[in-house]
Amino acid sequence: MMNWRHAVQQLAVLAAAFLVSSCAWVPNYVSEPGVTIERMTTSSGRVSSANFWEDRKGFALRGEITPQPITKGPMGGHVDIAITAPDGESIECTTTRQRIGVRHVRKQFSIRFDVLPAPGSVVQIKHHDSANHDDCQA
Q: Cα separation of 26 and 74, whole Å?
């Protein structure tokens, strides 16, 4: 029969192991990727924040959109993300939807990348309230 003290010690060791291993699951902010992030403002939304993060699956660009006019309700449309190489060549142009935070003014968005854009690249982010246009077009 296992005594009570031994059981508590085993539980404490398991809890500590869980806490230490869970640190590997936390995404890390990429502070100086050498990539310029242009946060654009349109009539439907303002890019309030945008940063690169790294986790075990690769890289992600995460940020928030503040609706124009400011509202706590659902926000339609999508976020355009255009990446331009240091030499001016268009690398990628993609769209992602923001997560609808009904109780929050700012709406979150994120998109995954296998690798970070090269240093000197420019990432342009803007919100559109309509889906009736080509990706990354005005």
A: 28
Please give the model's pTM, rounded to 2 decimal places: 0.70
- Residue 61's nearest CA partner among 102, 100, 115 is 115
Strand pairing report for 58-67 and 36-39: unpaired
Structure tokens at 105: 């003014």
Give the least confident one: 21-30, 50-59, 73-82, 105-114: 21-30
Residue indicated by tokens 């659902």? 74
Buried b (16+ CB within 10 A) or exposed e, 51-81: ebbeeeeebbbbbbbbbeeeeeeebebbbbb
The answer for 16, left when phi > 0, alpha when psi is -120 to 50, beta otherwise, is alpha
Run of H or E including 93: strand 90-96
135 token code pair: 């990706």
Tell me the β-bridge partners of 46: 41, 66
Q: How far is CA 9 from the centre of its chain?
A: 39
User: How many angstroms separate the CA atoms of 29 and 32, rounded?
Assistant: 9
